[in-house]
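so im writing up the methods section and need the Winged helix DNA-binding protein record in one place, dumping it here so i stop losing it
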Amino acid sequence: MDSKTNKPWQDTPDVSARIISSIGRIASVMRSGMWEFATAENLNPAQAEILQLLQGRKQGVRLSWLASQLSISAASASDSVSALAAKGLLYKAKAEDDGRATALFLTDDGAAMAARIGGALGFAEDAAAALPAAQQAELLTGLFKLIAQLQKTERFPEMRACLSCQYFEANRHPGKPAPHHCGLVNAPLSVALLRIDCPEQAPADPATRQRNWKVFA
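--- predicted struct ---
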C-alpha cells in the first residue's frame, strides 16, 4: 500500500497497551531504586520487599501470605525469611490468632530498615506529589479501576485496601464529595482518602469484597 494512503499514526499501539507499558516503565525505575538500596544494605530485592510488607503489621504475617504477595514459592520465601532473621531484622513467634501457627514480625532494627526503604523510593512519591491535586485524585481513581479489573483474573494478591475491608461502606453518601464511609472511624471517605494499604484493615468476606470493588469495576 502506498504510504501516502496510510492513516496517520496507524501503528500506534492501543491506549490500553500504552497504559500497561507506562506502568511497566515506572515499575522498572522503582525496581532499580529498590536494587540500589538493597545492594547498599546487603539485602536482595525480595528481602527488602518482605521488610516493606511486614511494616505496620503488628500482628505478624504467615509465610504463605508473604509468598503469595511476592508471587514466589514458599521455599524461596522461607530462604529470604531465614536470611533476614539471621541479620536480626525479623523474628518468628506464635501467631496471635492461632497459637499453633507461626507468624513473622519485624525487630526494631527491621522496622528502621523498612522505614529507610520507603525513603529510598521517595523520588517516585515526590514525582506524584508534584501533580495537581485533581490529577492525583483522577490517577488514583484510574488505578483503583485497573486493580478492580485485574482482580477479576485472580492474579492480583490480597491487599489491605479500604475496598477489601469489612468497615468500608460503598456509596453510603451518594452525591457527596465523600460518597463512601469508614465504619471503623465512623466518617465519610472521599476517593482521595481511600488507602491501598491500611494497617487497621479487617478483611471483608469474599461477597462483600467483590461488591465493594464493583464501585470501580
